[in-house]
Amino acid sequence: MSIEFRAGLLDRAVDLAFAELTAGVTGQRARHAELEGELSAIQSRIDRLLDALADGSVPRDEVAVRLNADLHNKVGDVKGLLGIRSRKPARCLESSSLTRSRSNLSAAAGGADSNSVAH
Question: What is the pLDDT of residue 2?
């Protein structure tokens, strides 16, 4: 196997690995930001409801119903965040790091005997 052919295979393998590592990162980040925003809005509503309860401006039963709904939503959003955070984190690969790694791998592949397999 020629060195050029091995380097081409190596480049393709690195490209595929990079694509796999970064697949879904944009969606995860967007969903994370969305959930953080929802949590902030829910917490603001909860704070306002507690203030209304304290000053008596809203009937206690109505506050209880709204608080239960907001707490239910908050639990759902927290579970969503925990789900995102529990997934294997996508690494932020800098192009300079990727290029350096590719160069190191190409150099190693070029120096290997064509009949040997690296382990």
Answer: 60
